[in-house]
Amino acid sequence: MTVRLLLLWSVLGLLIPQITNYQGKYERLPIKVAAQPVLFDHLKHSSLGLACEQCHPGAREKEQAGFPPVAQCMLCHETLKKNEPEIQKLVGFQQDGKEPSWVRVYQLPNFVHFRHSRHLEARIECGVCHGPVAERVILTKEVSTSMRVCVACHVEKEASIDCDACHDLEQ
């Protein structure tokens, strides 16, 4: 048993410096994504004082922040700019009882578990991981989601760099 523990601590002693200095994949940013089914102007909505969590309420409780239902958008847009072509697309979705198939801008591999709630509890602003979304009309991926960037942030913030903090080791 003692030999096993010594071996484990030796391996961990070798791995931890490698993890904190991990260089991994480099992403060439920004990365454009396919057009959204409805153009959503984040700049316009944020300039009205809407906070990220108002449209992405899952960020407080869930792993994925999610998107608002069309009915939520229509609370304002039944009267505001109701004849604009993009709002008419929302009306069409609502009449058909469907939700838009939004194109994800930030997508992590299935074996990575990013918990928005944990990051919000640590007072990490949305823009740290998502870039200046509030300043954008059309979104592109502006911030790397590579392990290199995540580990560097965890080291800087003194957050856990244990593999199972972010990875499902059962896969």
| Protein structure class | mainly alpha
> For the terminal residues, how far apart are their CA atoms?
27 Å
Count of helices? 9
Helical content (DSSP H or I, runs of 4+): 40-55%
User: Could you name the ranges where pLDDT drops below 50 across 5 or more consecutive residues?
Assistant: 5-16
Described by the principal axes of the CA atoms, the overall outline is elongated
Average pLDDT works out at 87
**What is the number of beta strands?**
0
Order of helices and strands: HHHHHHHHH
Main β-sheet description: none
Amount of beta strand = under 5%
How many whole angstroms does the radius of gyration measure?
20 Å
Structure, explained:
- The structure is a single chain.
- With 171 residues, the protein is an all-alpha fold.
- It has a domain at 25-35 and 103-171.
- The protein has nine helices and no strands.
- Helix 5 packs across helix 6.
- The longest helix has 19 residues, at 2-20.
- The protein is elongated, with a radius of gyration of 20 Å.
- It starts with a helix and ends in a 14-residue tail after the last helix.
- The model is unreliable at 5-16 (pLDDT under 50).
Note the main attributes of this structure:
mainly alpha, 9 helices, elongated
Question: What can be said about this structure in brief?
Answer:
The protein is mainly alpha-helical. It is 44% helix and 0% strand. The chain is elongated and about 55 Å long.
Topology:
Blueprint: H1 2-20, H2 42-47, H3 52-55, H4 58-61, H5 70-77, H6 85-96, H7 116-121, H8 126-130, H9 147-157
Helix pairs in contact: 5-6
